[in-house]
Amino acid sequence: MKLPLIGICRHRLATDGQGVTTLVAFHGCPLRCKYCLNSQCLRTDGIWCEMEMRDILGEVMVDDLYYKATSGGVVFGGGEPLLRSDGIVDFCNSRPMEWRIYIETSLNVERRHLEAVAPYVDHYYIDVKDMNPDIYHRYTSRSNRRVIGNLRWLAAHVDTGKVTIRLPHIPDYNTEQDMERSQQQLEAMGFKDFDRFQYITPNAE
Ligand code: SF4
Hints:
Layout: E1 2-13, E2 20-26, E3 49-52, H1 53-60, H2 64-70, E4 73-77, H3 85-94, E5 100-105, H4 111-117, E6 123-127, H5 133-140, H6 145-157, E7 163-169, H7 176-189, E8 193-198
Parallel strand pairs: 2-4, 4-5, 5-6, 6-7, 7-8
Antiparallel strand pairs: 1-2, 1-3
Helix pairs in contact: 1-3, 3-4
The chain binds iron/sulfur cluster.
């Protein structure tokens, strides 16, 4: 099956994951964030190309030596990569086992997608936005019920040392205090690694 992509980005260093990584970014996302930086993920005309997973594997294989020499690998992002969980599982079963697998996700997907990829993922980067359901809904136009359920599942089934939680300060939507409350809630679930940062909006100085 051909999968829609917004891009493949090679030779990434010190962004996410270890070593040299290639980002495979899928089209499509269940959220509608007000400050979406990848709005091509949401537009029907935003697809860069459509590829079979075996062709994506062939494309990223060109950097095989870099991944092996630096303990790097492939980052699946988007958009929401977990919507393509079947393809990611196929990819993981076919790639050289030395490659590490990273996922950048909002976790706002059905549980089955998370369960399918979990045996293969070396590290998760989870953009939870904000744990407060009202703030989350105002910012994404969606509920965070699935996010919270999936976080609980991860905390129970996966080493939380393999999880980085991204907590943004979202201008006009949350505050430092909201971020602190989110972090405390997540710490109570067992998560330990947090990346707190500021969204830069188009109107920011
Ligand atoms: S999760 Fe990312 S790609 Fe999806 S709408 Fe939000 S910012 Fe855009």
